[in-house]
Every structure is written in C-alpha cells, then in structure tokens.
C-alpha cells in the first residue's frame, strides 16, 4: 500500500498515512487530487479506480471516506477488507466510532493503524491481538498518570 | 465539547481542537493557530523546565496543527527529547511526531537514531515495537545505515516476542524497499523463510510480505519458500471456518494470509516436485469449488474475503498458464461474475479476463463471453467498468471476431467518455491493422475513425494508414475512391483532408477515369478544403497539387494559377510561400521526364513495426499491453504489418537511427524542393518514430557498415584482443544459457526487432539490420525497477567452432543503469562462413546487492545473411535439379503449431530473408523461396519448398519442408530453424 486517507464528505482530511517517501507538497497535491476524484463518484459505482500507476480502493462509512492507494498487482477486494477491518478496530476501541472520535483522538487512530498495518503491509489481522496491544499501551499510560494541576484539569494550559 | 477522549485525555489538546472546530472562518482558524503557536513557542523557550506531560501535550498540539495542513518549523527537538522519556505515552507521542514530521535529511536524525537504538536494546517489547514502527514509518537511508544489520538479528532471534517479530519483519521490508543495497542477505535469510512455518499466524502474515519482496528480487535464494507456502496454504484452505479462531474473517479462514501465499507463489514457476504441485493444484481446485458453494453469510465482507482469495488463485493459475483445466474453470467462474449484481465483481471479472484472454488455453473460452462484454460496454453506468469492458474486447480480439469487435468499438466511440476516446481510437486502429484480412476493411475502419473521432486520431494513426496504402497496391484504388467519397462531406475533419490530400496526390489517377472523379473534380474538392485548414495541412495539400501536375497534365494551368495567386506566393507563412514558389517554378521549367522522376510515386515503406502500439503503451503505462498480447496477435497471424514492439524501446530505436526524417508536412519528401533526397534532418519531429526508415533506408545506420574497400576486415579492425571488445578467449568457462533461450532465439528467426528477453528486473529489446555478410545489432537494456543496476556488464562469446565462423564485436555498455532507464549496446557481426550455433550473450549486474547473472542466445542465425534471389519457374527447377546430391537436401515433415494462414506464412518466409517466388510451384498451395547466403568465405545458394497439408490423414495440419543448398550444413541448419516457425 502506498498511502491511506480518511476524509469527510466535505473533503476535510481526517487522517493521512504515507508509506512511500514523498515531499509535503506532493502529499498535499495527491490528497487534493484523490479526494476530489473520490468525492465525484456516485453511489453504486465500483470501489476501484485507476489512478496514475496505482489503484485507488475506497469505501464510505457514514460521513467518512476511507481510501487506500495500492500497487497495480495488489488485490482490490482484500484491500477493501483492510479498510473494513480498520473500521471495526476503531469501532471496537472507541465503542461505535464516529468522525468526532477520530478528530479528537487522532493519535489513537494512528496507533491503531500502526498495529494493524505497518509499512503498508498487514502486520496483524486478528482484531483481538491488535486491540490487546493498544489496551496494553493504555494500561501503561494509566499507571504512569500523575495528578495534575487544577488549571490543567479545566483545560486552560 | 464531546467527551470522546479515551485513555489519557489531554484536556488542553481537546479544548484546542474544539476551538479550531468552532472557528467560523479560515481566518479565525489561522488566528487561533497563530495564538497557540506563540503560546507553545514561549513555553518551549521559557526559563522554567517543562515537565514531560506538558511537553507531550504541546508536541501533540503541534502535530495536530501540522495535520491540519499548516507548516511547523519548531518543536522537533522537544519531540526528540520525549523519545528518551521512560513514560510510555510521552515516548509514543514523540515517535508519532517524528514519524509524521521528520524528513530524512533532518539534522536530528542522529539523535533520533540514538533513541531508537536505546529502545531496541531495552528488551522491553512495547518499547522495541515503538522504535521499529518509527523506522518502518520513516524508512530513511540513515536509518537503514544504522539498523539494517540489527533488525534481521532481532527478527530471527529465538527469544524475540511474536509482536516484535511482526514489526521487525515489516520494518526490514521497508528498509529493503528504500535501500536494498544496505540490507545484506546472510544466514538469516534461510531462517526468515522458515517463519512461514511459525505457529503464530500474525508472524506468518507479517513475514510473508517480506519474503515475497525478497523472493521477487532474489528468486534463487528463496526458492525453498515454495513448498513451505504450498503446505501452509493447503492447511488453511482445508481448515474449517472456526479452526483459525480470530484469524477467521466472516467465516473465511485467514483471507489476508491466503492472498499473500498465493501472491508469493506467483514469484515462481509451477513447482517441479510432483507432490508439491499436486497439493497446490488441489488447493486451487478447492478454492474454485468453494466459489460454487452457497455463502456462509450474507455480509459483503464474507463474499469479498472469499472472492479476494479466488481472484488471487486465478491470478496464479494465469501466471502458471499450464493447466488448461484450471484455466477454463477460472474463465467460467469469471463468466458468472460478469453478470453479478455487485459492480465491484463485474469490474474485477472483466479485468481478470483480460489476462486470461492472452493464454492459448483459455482464449477460446474467454471469447464465448463476447456478447456479455459488448453489453457491458453499452450499458454499464460506471465509466471505469466500461473501460475494463473495452480493454477486454481488445484482448479477446482475434481474426474470427475482429470485424464484430471493431464495429462495436466504433459505435461505442460515438458516445464514449472523452477521457477514454484517444485510447479507444488507438485500440481500434491497432485491431483493424492487426486483423485486416482484406485491406479495404482496414481503410474503411480508419476513415470511419477519423469521421467519428477525428480530434482523437493522433498522427501515428493517419501516418500508418498512408504507409499501408502505399505498401499494398491492391488497396490503393479502393482507398482513393473511399477517401474521395469521404471528402464530399461538407464538414470533414482536418485529418481526413490530410489523408485525402496524400492519397489522391499519389493515387488519384486510379479513379480519374470516372468523370465524377475526374482530375479537376478531385483538385477542386481538395482545394475547397484548403482555406479551412492549418498551415501544416495546407503545406501537405500544396505537395499534393504538384503531384497532380505530374499525374494529370491537364490540371497544370489551373494549379499553376492557384500557386501563382498572392495568397500562396506571398503567403506570410514562409513554408507555404516557399512551397508555392518552388512548385510553381518546378512545374514551369522541368521537362515532363524530370517532373515524372522527381514526383514519382512514393516507394514502399520498409515493413516496420507499428508505432501506434508504442503510443498506446506510453499512454497506459507499463503493463497495460502485455507481451502476451502482442504474441497473441502474432499467433493469430497479425504479423503482416509487423506486430509491434514494446513502448520503451521505440524511442530509443528511433533515436538510434542516424538519419532523422523530415517534419510532418513532408510526407512527400519534397520539403526542400527538388531534389527529393534533400530532406533535412529535423530533430524532435513527431514523425521520427513513424518514418524513421521511410524511403531513406540507404542512408540508414548501416552505411558505416559498408566496406569501403573489398576487404571487410577494415571495419572490424579492432578485432579480438582489443580491450573494449569481448574476445572469446578471455572468458574461461562458457556460461550456460537460460533454458528458454532456444525458444527466444526461434522467435527472432523471421524477424529482426522486438523484445528479446524480459523478467521482473530487466527488459532487453533488440533491433538488428543485416547487409551482405555484415550485421549490426542494437540491444536496449531497460531497468524495470526503481533501483539502479550497478556493475552492469555484458559479454558476447562465440562457443566452440563458432569462433572461427563469426566475428563478433561488442561495444562496452554503461556499467550503471538508473531505475527506469535504458541503455543501448551496439554489436557488430561479420559472417566469415556458415554456422549453426548462436553467440552467447552473458549479462551480469548487481541489483540491491544481489548478483544477477543470465545468459541468452543472441538471435544471429544463418538466414540473416540471406540475399533474396528472384528467378522464374524454369530457372528454379533447373537449379533445384542441380542440387540433387543427397547431402545437399534436408527435409522435415512436422505438425503445424500455428493456424495455416497463407498471409502469415508469406510474412514469415519474407522475414526469413529469401525471395518468395510467386507462380513457380505448379501447386499454388506450396511456397518456394530462393536466396544466397553471404559469408566472407563463400556464397551459398539455397532453395526452399514448403508444402502445407491442411488435411493429413491424421486430421492434423502438417508441413513438409525441403531445403536444398550447395552446402550440406546450411541445408540442415535452415531446416532445423524453420521447422520451429510454422
């Protein structure tokens, strides 16, 4: 996989993960182009698109589009299920996930993705194992919690 | 504010994100961000040391701002500091920031590497995974330098935790992709292969991506993975849906791993071990069977996962291309999908069938779906699906259905989406040419193309129709008539005017007998379009006019008047003005004889490969038109006009031609006025590729091969022993050529240009020319990867007695080929005496540290040195009788391996280099040829007779081939070579 983008129906990028070395300008250009292309598709059209020498595989979940760019020889259907498994992972972790969860906890969305897909390839496809890894990390951080100031608690710093 | 924070919420961050979301305008957002940036900056610069938590929070805010699309120019140092925190969450945010924001040339890389090193050696699996994820995400060369040695050790160490192994495998894959030269194969290699046996499915899933990539690049070192992969696959395929617990996805056992195993197997040929192969075939059958079972769930995830495996299995079956039964089953399965209600499945079935169409075993099965595919082209609502349908029609096209498919594509063109019109036009043009049995159909098709989609008809297409019309006198009259009719339309496309101008200028006389298309009518028709045309077309028309003066003296005064008018002779365009002046002068001072010589009909273009194909490939990118497709066309007998070459080669080949042709308007070779030969080279001309050999073959690159004296030695004076060349004696052991090299050699007996060899790394194109006993070969080595080949060397050797039969001299080739680049090598050959073996071409280079070594046979065969000899029937049989000693004759009776198509046979015999003698053999079904082989030592006259027997008693199509020549070894060798061609 070359990259994965999550964006809203309004075209706002919610998560971007790049597995190929690209400059920031290239990334911006590509995101713009791909988002525009996918948003222009009508429902019931097929989920695969040829784009440059890659294949775009996308699926919409509620207000969010999940979109992967894979190399030519990759399997489209299994990529579609990569997207679905990621959605399941988010859903299980956040408990019926919505766009806001991903906005406010973007770092978690990245962590979960890293456990599932690394360097563009599936690292662990078992839902249980991925979530176990994330929960273990959450445990670690709770142990490390220290009391915070009142100001911090009300979010003023 | 939503209470969606999970784990350790950073309230400050949540508040900030809410603020941003509440901003009513872009300006407000920028203002809020700038305020925050100023705040963070002051915190970072402040005297008070920040605690880890605050640092984490601010770094995270910066990250958020960056992800919104704003530039961040500080905070990197603070993020690096977080890496060495011993609190997990702080470390985690630090790594995330660096993964997203640090580019490889950052000065901080040494500090980052240091922190990573500490974490890798911490023995804390969670920290190790974080560090590995960071390397996999950044994947920079500096990281490869620092860790490419360490990660393989972590990967194969016995005490490494499973989760760490998984990360290490993919981390190593990333480093190998970015810096293959830094990841050195070693004793870990074999242990990595054995991860395919690991108990933990997650480890296998991660490791297989690494193994697949390494196998692609170093197939030999990893080939033990084949049997391991087969047994793993077999265990998964035969397991019940609950056996694999959490690795079962919607009742499908381990779909990701199954797909990857099938993909890995596609790096290799079918297993040689019968038991392994049997097991694999069983797996593939089971997968095909399961597709027929009722679904275990109605969820689309179930069917997607199941079909993902099915499509991957079909890809493997196509890759093997050796199991007719499986290929036909695959085709039937895809046929069902063609009418599935899921658009995705229809799309993939069309796509997958395209590759099936190129297999000889399934080509016919694919063809049975033609109606469904045509229907898809007409009714699919999604343009990308229609595009696939068009691709498939193109792929399944052969002689038997060409007319139907071309007609459907033409009618689709009228309403086709703009985005795919140009490609459709190219495809129609290629099919029409490839499968033209009768050339009037070809002419009609191309003129229809221009009529329907003139704007999308590129120059290559109309050049090609002209080339073909000029070369085939049986179609010239028809072409003139048709183009004349087409020009009657009040509004016709400028491309039509170009074709019309050219063809009437050459062959208008063929229809001039009919008063409705008398010379003046023709001229007036053309001239009525003149004012609507662009300058290049006008220039072409002026040339057509001067040709008219030669063809039809009665038009002279009318045309001279036109040329003399101010709008021509004083035209502001210098090219038009010059033409008008020169043509006017030429027509008034030259005698009829001179005029007739200067304006003689164009000589036939040398048969050469279609550049349209190259253009299509360039448009679609590599892989769009596979070699198979081309071979396919040839199998079906489309070689009449040259099948085509790979896109990558054509530009290089064109550039290698010493004389460049003239610009577009100069089709008539009259640009500089008389004399005809004065065509000036014009670099960058669009015509380069099409006409690079047109009519000026004598000035071609062979000129410098011509011996200046009678001794051809002077040419090859550098000879053996020169350090640049490759003297045969230097190579101590003769390399062993690839098993398929004989087959590759046979491909080039009757043709000179094409793709000699191709694998995943390298493509070798060849272009060769022969004259007398000399030959010159251009080899084009193309690097198909994105990584450079280093120490690239090639050696040409003549094994055994060939050393004294051929003099071969190769120029050294550049030792470095950049990714995607192509280098050229020139090889000169002198035939000293007749020979039977082929020179060996050995190629060595390093790709990503691994040495690649392959040896091919250079397609130099004795027939290349043929000089055709025309003779009458009487002479032929007289000579035939003269060569009646038993050893002078060689004969073979063999089964036809291709359809018996007269045109194909003729094309092949012509390609052989002998003269194909018409009306010589009393039996019109037979073919006879004559030629003289030119070698330095002697000339060997050879006669050939090929007798097809379409209905031998066995029901097989058979041939009897007889060759007689003055030298027994030549007869024998020619017979051997030719028996493989039909």
Shape of chain B: globular
Which structural class matches the secondary elements of chain B?
alpha+beta
Interface with most residues: A-B, 67 and 81 residues
Distance between the termini of chain B: 79 Å
What profile does the largest beta sheet of chain B have?
6 strands, antiparallel
What is the multimeric organization of the chains shown? Answer: heterodimer
Query: What is the number of E strands of chain B?
Result: 16
| Count of helix runs of chain A | 6
Fraction in helix of chain A: 40-55%
* Largest sheet descriptor of chain A: 5 strands, antiparallel
Beta strand % of chain A = 15-25%
Radius of gyration of chain B: 34 Å
Task: Give helix and strand order of chain A, one letter per element, not per position.
Answer: EEHEEEHHHEEHH
Family (chain A): Belongs to the adaptor complexes small subunit family.
Organism (chain A): Sinocyclocheilus anshuiensis
GO cellular component, one term (chain A): AP-1 adaptor complex
Domain AP complex mu/sigma subunit (chain A): 1-140
């Amino acid at each position: 996989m070359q990259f994965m983008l999550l964006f809203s129906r309004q075209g706002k990028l919610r998560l971007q993960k790049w597995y190929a070395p690209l400059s920031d300008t290239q990334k911006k250009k590509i995101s713009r182009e791909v988002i525009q292309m996918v948003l222009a598709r009508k429902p019931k059209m097929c989920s695969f698109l040829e784009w440059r020498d890659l294949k775009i595989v996308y699926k919409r979940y509620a207000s969010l589009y999940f979109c992967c760019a894979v190399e030519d020889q990759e399997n489209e259907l299994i990529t579609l299920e990569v997207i679905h498994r990621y959605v399941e992972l988010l859903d299980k972790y956040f408990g019926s996930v919505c766009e806001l969860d991903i906005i406010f906890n973007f770092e978690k969305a990245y962590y979960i993705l890293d456990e599932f897909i690394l360097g563009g390839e599936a690292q662990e496809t078992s839902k249980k194992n991925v979530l176990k890894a994330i929960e273990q990390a959450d445990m670690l951080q709770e142990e490390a919690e220290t009391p915070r100031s009142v100001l911090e608690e009300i979010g003023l710093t | 504010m939503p209470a969606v924070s999970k784990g350790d919420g950073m309230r400050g961050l949540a508040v900030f994100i809410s603020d941003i979301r509440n901003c009513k305008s872009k300006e407000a957002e920028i203002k809020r961000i700038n305020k925050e940036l100023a705040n963070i900056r002051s915190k970072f610069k402040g005297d008070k040391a920040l605690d880890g938590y605050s640092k984490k929070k601010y770094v995270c805010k910066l990250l958020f701002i960056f992800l919104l699309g704003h530039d961040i120019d500080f905070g990197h140092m603070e993020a690096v500091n977080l890496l060495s925190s011993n609190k997990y969450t702080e470390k985690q945010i630090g790594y995330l920031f660096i993964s997203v924001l640090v580019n490889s040339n950052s000065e901080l890389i040494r500090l980052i590497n240091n922190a990573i090193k500490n974490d890798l050696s911490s023995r804390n699996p969670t920290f190790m995974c974080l560090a590995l994820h960071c390397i996999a995400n950044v994947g920079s060369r500096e990281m490869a330098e620092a860790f490419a040695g360490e990660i393989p050790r972590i990967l194969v160490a016995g005490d490494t935790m499973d989760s760490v192994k998984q990360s290490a495998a993919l981390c190593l894959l990333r480093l190998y992709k970015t810096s293959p030269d830094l990841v050195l194969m070693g004793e870990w290699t074999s242990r990595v292969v054995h991860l395919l046996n690991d108990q933990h499915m997650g480890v296998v899933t991660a490791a297989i991506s690494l193994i697949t990539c390494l196998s692609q690049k170093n197939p030999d070192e990893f080939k033990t993975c084949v049997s391991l992969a087969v047994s793993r696959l077999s265990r998964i395929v035969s397991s019940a849906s609950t056996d694999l617990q959490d690795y079962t996805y919607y009742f499908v056992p381990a779909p990701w791993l199954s797909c990857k195993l099938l993909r890995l197997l596609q790096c290799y040929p079918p297993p040689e071990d019968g038991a392994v192969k049997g097991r694999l075939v069983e797996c593939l059958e089971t997968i095909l069977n399961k597709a027929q079972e009722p679904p275990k769930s109605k969820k689309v995830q179930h069917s997607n996962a199941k079909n993902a495996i099915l499509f991957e299995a079909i890809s493997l079956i196509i890759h093997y291309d050796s199991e007719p039964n499986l290929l036909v089953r695959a085709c039937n399965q895809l046929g069902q999908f063609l009418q599935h209600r899921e658009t995705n499945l229809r799309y993939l079935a069309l796509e997958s069938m395209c590759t099936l169409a190129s297999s000889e075993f399934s080509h016919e099965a694919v063809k049975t779906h033609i109606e469904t595919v045509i229907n898809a082209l007409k009714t699919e609502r999604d343009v990308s699906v229609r595009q696939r349908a068009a691709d498939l029609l193109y792929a399944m096209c052969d002689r038997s259905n060409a007319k139907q498919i071309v007609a459907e594509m033409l009618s689709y063109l009228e309403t086709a989406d703009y985005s795919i019109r140009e490609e459709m036009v190219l495809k129609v043009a290629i099919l029409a040419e490839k499968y033209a049995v009768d050339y009037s159909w070809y002419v009609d098709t191309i003129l229809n193309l221009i009529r329907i989609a003139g704007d999308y008809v590129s120059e290559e297409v109309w050049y090609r129709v002209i080339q073909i019309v000029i070369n085939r006198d049986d179609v010239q009259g028809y072409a003139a008539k048709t183009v004349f009719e087409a020009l009657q339309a009040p509004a016709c496309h400028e491309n039509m005017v170009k074709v019309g101008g050219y063809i009437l200028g050459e062959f208008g006389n063929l229809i001039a007998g009919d008063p409705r298309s008398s010379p003046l009518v023709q001229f007036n028709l053309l001239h009525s379009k003149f004012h609507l045309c662009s300058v290049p077309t006008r220039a072409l028309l002026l040339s057509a006019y001067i040709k008219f003066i030669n063809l039809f003296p009665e038009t002279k005064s009318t045309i001279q008047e036109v040329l003399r008018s101010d709008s021509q002779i004083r035209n502001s365009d210098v090219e038009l003005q010059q033409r008008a002046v020169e043509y006017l002068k030429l027509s008034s001072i030259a005698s009829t004889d001179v005029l007739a010589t200067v304006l003689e009909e164009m000589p036939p273009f040398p048969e050469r490969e279609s550049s349209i194909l190259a253009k299509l490939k360039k448009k679609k990118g590599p892989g769009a038109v596979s070699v198979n497709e081309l071979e396919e066309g040839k199998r079906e007998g489309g070689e009449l006009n040259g099948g085509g070459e790979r896109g990558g080669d054509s530009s290089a080949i064109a550039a290698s031609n010493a004389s460049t042709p003239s610009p577009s308007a100069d089709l008539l070779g009259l640009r500089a006025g008389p004399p005809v030969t004065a065509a000036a080279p014009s670099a960058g001309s669009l015509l380069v590729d099409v006409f690079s050999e047109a009519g000026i073959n004598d000035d071609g690159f062979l000129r410098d091969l011509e011996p200046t004296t009678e001794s051809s030695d002077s040419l090859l004076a550098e000879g053996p022993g020169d350090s640049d060349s490759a003297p045969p004696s230097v190579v101590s052991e003769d390399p062993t050529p690839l098993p398929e090299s004989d087959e590759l050699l046979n491909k080039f007996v009757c043709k000179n240009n094409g793709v000699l060899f191709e694998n995943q790394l390298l493509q070798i194109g060849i272009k060769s020319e022969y004259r007398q006993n000399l030959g010159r070969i251009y080899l084009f080595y193309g690097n198909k990867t994105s990584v450079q080949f280093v120490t690239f060397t090639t050696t040409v050797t003549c094994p055994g007695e060939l050393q004294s039969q051929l003099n071969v001299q190769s120029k050294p080739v550049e030792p470095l080929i950049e990714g995607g680049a192509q280098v050229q090598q020139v090889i000169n050959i002198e035939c000293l005496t007749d020979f039977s073996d082929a020179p060996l071409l050995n190629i060595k280079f390093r790709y990503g540290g691994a040495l690649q070594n392959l040896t091919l046979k250079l397609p130099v065969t004795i027939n290349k040195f043929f000089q055709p000899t025309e003779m009458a029937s009487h002479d032929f049989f007289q000579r035939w009788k003269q060569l009646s000693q038993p050893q002078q004759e060689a004969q073979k009776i063999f089964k036809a391996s291709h359809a018996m198509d007269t045109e194909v046979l003729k094309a092949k015999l012509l390609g052989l280099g002998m003269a194909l003698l018409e009306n010589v053999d009393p039996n019109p079904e037979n073919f006879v040829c004559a030629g003289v082989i030119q070698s330095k030592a002697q000339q060997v006259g050879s006669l050939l007779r090929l007798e097809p027997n379409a209905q031998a008693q066995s029901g097989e199509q058979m041939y009897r081939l007889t060759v007689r020549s003055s030298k027994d070894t030549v007869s024998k060798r020619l017979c051997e070579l030719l028996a493989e061609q039909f």
